[in-house]
Write a structure and sequence with these properties.
The complex is a heterodimer of chains A (342) and B (341). With 342 residues, chain A is α/β, with parallel strands linked by helices. Helices cover 45% and strands 18% of the residues of chain A. The model of chain A has no long low-confidence stretch (mean pLDDT 93). In chain B, 46% of the residues lie in helices and 18% in strands. The chains are: A alpha/beta (342), B alpha/beta (341). At the A-B interface, helix 1, strand 4, helix 2, helix 3 and helix 4 of A face helix 1, strand 4, helix 2, helix 3 and helix 4 of B.
Chain lengths: 342, 341
């Protein structure tokens, strides 16, 4: 694996109800500046609507604002809940971000799974796959063609030409988040890159890489240069210290995912996020000393080809100084060890 | 009598062949300049599929500007509300309000372009009911938790937005309206009527009476802030102003005419395909600093407008022409208007 490892910072920007979100934003500005200073490669913002009992910023305004703090980082929508959106709206907003940032956008998309979101956008869980597919086709056409005419199930493009095309040609890279095997096959068919699922154990991912490769072969597509995954990370002096420090925050986080029903979309045998913390830890998060984490990253690169790691340093309730310290130790201690080891 | 504030409208519509990276940088530069010159707000409109013009989308642009222009209010003027899902808009705009420390203005209007309605899976016919139910939903999402509401095209099931705006109870809601029924609706559902940019001032003055009568009917006071959008250009003399901006302003109105904007305007003042001189009369604020001051004061006296959102660039206007005009407006017209009132 000759290609250099790239690192992103994931910003969910989630805070407990009642937290002052202006302070939350200031914390993330500080993290973005630090990521820029340390030479991270990308900055990711996810998207959820009606995220109660958590607060968070919306993806596109957040990325549009934070880009000015981190002018070298690529901007990753990780992910857009594509089935909810109208393609003309999304294609224009994303094209604006690509142009405003000088061509730094990565368009990450995925299905979503929360009832409150489907209903809020006037759709249903049942419609999500056909909408996803037609929306992606429409966005790609709007980005690359003029005078697009296309009748979808929930929109109609009538000789529509975008107000602005993206800067990156033919399109910004399209990453598709996928958990289930069938979704991974869809990623091979429709997207530039499979964005691996952050909640899965590595052994599951290793198996799924084979699913992905077989599907790529079927569609006559090469294995992409870039193989990204998002992971939770905390760097400390030892695994024990990392686990104990991160425990209250990560437990809370995964409890809420379970409430939201995230695990319903994960593959059988690895579909329970209501597990004890100790079981969740196993092979799922990067928690430990710099040496231990470097070893895990190298192993993931060798086993699965992962070469773009989007790291989530921040969880609900974690004090800012712990985030900054973990980021700093990652950049100064873990990264050189990975470079030596690869 | 309240003082008159001046905001800047960045229409940001550019010909097909323009390099949009450069144009975006120029828009940011104008936003920063407006901030440093003491403009009250920067306004960005929204159109989709704006061919043959290019444009930057509203929400990403205002979010990006929040840092570069730390003082001005950020005016989403306007959001084509009927097209959208209320949960989406409520969260995106709340994010901008929080990120900017409470500087958002939420402008809304109906829209009129078929290509937009169709692409958002709706129709011209549905636009009024959608507009009203979307606004009700957004106000509720901004002020309540666990909202339950079944709309014609969405359903909120125990929904609480991920983020509430900083401004309480909500950022100011300005309702753009051209036609008399729309103005009455603005009185009923908005925090103020955002007076329309295209009509002659005599038409607007008549419509202010419609607005006031409607406010009375709904038992609402006249709003403190009474905004109007206008095409504005200042130069040393009127001749020079027209020489610099006349052609590009005329092109802009030709496109509006082609889009069918004037179909949404009140009878007797519903033709934007007029010759330029006729079009400009009692409609645009153009001239020397003294002349524009006089026009602004006259506008204020006839309509009560106290917040003028100035559009100062049209397709093809050179950047320096616009920034020179902004500078002259701020340095000469702002103080002259303050004195004259």
């Amino acid at each position: 694996m000759a290609r250099k490892m790239q690192y992103g910072i994931g910003m969910r920007t989630q805070y407990a109800a009642g937290f002052d979100m202006q302070k939350g934003f200031a914390e993330h500005v500080e993290q973005a500046r630090l990521a820029e200073k340390f030479g991270f490669d990308s900055l990711m913002k996810n998207s959820h609507f009606a995220g109660y009992p958590l607060q968070e910023f919306q993806q596109l305004p957040f990325l549009s604002r934070i880009m000015t703090e981190a002018p070298s980082l690529r901007l990753l929508t990780g992910i857009v809940l594509l089935s909810l959106q109208k393609p003309l709206d999304l294609a224009e907003q994303l094209a604006s971000i690509d142009v405003m940032s000088g061509g730094r956008l990565i368009f990450g998309c995925g299905l979503g799974y929360r009832e409150v979101e489907f209903r809020g956008f006037g759709t249903t869980q049942k419609e999500r796959v056909p909408r996803f597919i037609e929306n992606l086709e429409a966005v790609k056409r709007l980005w690359t063609e003029d005078h697009v005419s296309m009748k979808g199930s929930h929109f109609e493009l009538m000789d529509a030409t975008l107000s602005m095309k993206p800067l990156q040609k033919p399109t910004p890279p399209i990453w598709m988040g996928a958990n289930a095997d069938v979704a991974i096959e869809r990623a091979a068919e429709l997207a530039d890159v499979w964005f691996m699922n952050p909640h899965q154990r590595m052994e599951t991912i290793e198996r799924q890489v084979e699913v992905y490769k077989r599907a790529l072969d079927r569609f006559n597509k090469p294995f992409p240069d870039e193989i990204p995954i998002a992971r939770e990370i905390f760097v400390a002096n030892s695994r024990e210290e990392a686990i104990n420090t991160a425990k209250p925050f990560l437990e809370e986080k995964y409890k809420i995912y379970h409430q939201w029903g995230q695990d319903k979309v994960m593959p059988k045998g690895d579909d329970n996020l209501a597990l004890d913390y100790d079981e969740l830890l196993e092979d799922r998060f990067l928690l430990g000393s710099p040496e231990e984490i470097a070893e895990q990253i190298i192993a993931q690169n060798r086993q699965c080809g992962i070469n773009h790691l989007v790291l989530q340093f921040h969880w609900v309730g974690i004090p800012q100084e712990l985030v900054l310290e973990s980021m700093t130790r990652f950049a100064e201690e873990v990264r050189p060890l990975v470079e030596q080891g690869l | 009598m309240t003082a008159i504030q001046f905001g800047l409208m960045l229409r940001g519509q550019f010909p097909q062949e323009d390099d949009m990276t450069q144009r975006f940088n120029e828009l940011m530069l104008q936003g920063k300049l407006a901030d440093s010159l003491g403009f009250s707000c920067v306004t960005k409109g929204s159109h989709y599929a704006g061919y043959p013009l290019q444009d930057v989308q509203q929400i990403p642009f205002l979010a990006a500007l929040a840092r570069e222009a730390p003082n001005v209010r950020l005016n989403a003027g306007i959001v084509l509300l009927s097209l959208h899902k209320p949960l989406d808009i409520a969260e995106q705009l709340a994010s901008i309000d929080v990120i900017s420390g409470g500087r958002l203005i939420f402008g809304i209007a109906l829209g009129y372009r078929e290509v937009e309605f169709k692409a958002f899976g709706t129709t011209q016919k549905e636009r009024v009911p959608r507009f009203e139910e979307n606004l009700i939903a957004i106000r509720r999402l901004w002020t309540e938790n666990n909202v339950n509401m079944k709309g014609s095209h969405f359903e909120l099931e125990d929904a609480s937005v991920s983020l509430k705006p900083v401004q309480k109870p909500n950022p100011p809601i300005w309702v753009g309206a051209n036609a008399d029924p729309a103005i009455r609706r603005a009185a009923r559902i908005g925090d103020c009527w955002y007076m329309n940019p295209h009509n002659r001032i005599d038409t607007i003055a008549r419509q202010v009476d419609v607005y006031k009568a409607a406010l009375d009917e709904y038992n609402k006071p006249m709003p403190e802030e009474f905004p109007i959008r206008r095409e504005v250009f200042v130069a040393k003399t009127k001749e020079e102003a027209l020489r610099i901006c006349g052609e590009s302003l005329a092109i802009k109105y030709k496109v509006y005419h082609e889009w069918g904007q004037d179909k949404a305007m009140p009878e007797g003042d519903d033709d934007l395909g007029l010759e330029f001189d006729e079009l400009a009369r009692d409609r645009f604020l153009i001239g020397s600093p003294d002349e524009v001051t006089e026009q602004v004061v006259d506008l204020h006296k006839r309509t009560g407008a106290n917040h003028i959102i100035a559009s100062m660039q049209w397709p093809g206007t050179p950047l320096t022409a616009t920034t020179d005009s902004m500078q002259m407006l701020a340095e000469e017209v702002f103080p002259k208007v303050a004195q004259a009132l």
